[in-house]
TrEMBL record:
It comes from the Bacteria. One of its GO terms (cellular component) is cytosol. To bacterial alkanal monooxygenase alpha and beta chains. One of its GO terms (molecular function) is oxidoreductase activity, acting on paired donors, with incorporation or reduction of molecular oxygen. Residues 1-301 form the Luciferase-like domain. This is LLM class flavin-dependent oxidoreductase. InterPro entries: Bact_Lucif_Oxidored (IPR050766), CmoO-like (IPR019949), Luciferase-like_dom (IPR011251), Luciferase-like_sf (IPR036661). It comes from Bacillus timonensis. Pfam families: Bac_luciferase (PF00296).
Amino acid sequence: MKLSILDQAPISVNQTSQDALFESMKLAQAGERFGYTRYWIAEHHDLAGLACPAPEVMLGYIGAQTKKIRIGAGAVLLPHYKPYKVAELYNMLSTLFPNRIDIGIGRAPGGSAEATNALSDNFLQQVWKMPELIDTLLHFIHNDFPEEHEFANVNAAPLPLTPPVPWLLGTSKKSAILAAEKGLAYTFGLFMSDNDGEEIVKKYIHNFTPRIEGDKPQVIVTVSAICAETKEKAEEIALSSYVWGKQREKGEGKQGVPSISEAMEYLENEKLHDGFRKMKQKVIIGNPKEVKDKLLGLQQIYQTDEIMIVTITHSPEDRLKSYELIAKEMGHTTS
């Protein structure tokens, strides 16, 4: 089974945004060493504790610091942008880093209503036009507009020898059906969904219509996971992520992911133990064997050969160790 990385570029307490972005680059390098298939970085706008509003900038930096791991956005929030500009950016990256670039496509705003208004006009109208935006983007990527189209003679230069590979990201039947209708590979965000993921992925596969002859449905399932040498250690590390989520729900947490000791204190003061127990049922937390068993279980449920993992910890070292332990337990070669 392939393993991949989704990085939200979290900022920890006592870190700067520069520190967090540097750790993102180190994570991509480590993922390459550990045998991960791809590294994607997310796009967020003015969200406290998240450092990356521009994946395309980070991908240029990360691509130059790595050699073979596939890199991409998870996701480009397409309603904010003109498809032509997105195609230019990712064609440029594909020219610089051949056969390594993915474009994950999403429809979320990625930030507050105020940030959305500052970034783009008529965002909701653009969300409704998502199918049309995707069509236009695909035509620019593949340079295959019909002759009568107004953009038939417009190239999203430079045109790489191997185009970037588009994926549609989503958490609902609507996104699954859209991906299927457009002949796109699909990434299901299990880590941020309470929906029936198994049914959603089945709907995608059942309705898949190839855009290019020979294309087949491809599925990545994205999960949240934290691995350590022992289950107890993994649960301790996971406290930081859980408490930070609760702080952000209350409009707190602007300082970033709290340390384990800060998280323990907050958990006790706010009496959040029951919530943490529930969180542990949704997130994969454990020692290497426990994490492997759960990942293999998900592989069977979703009939996928690739799982993408998002891991948020206070310590960058704990995050790297988690990815390393999972890769080794799953039999990936590390270099």
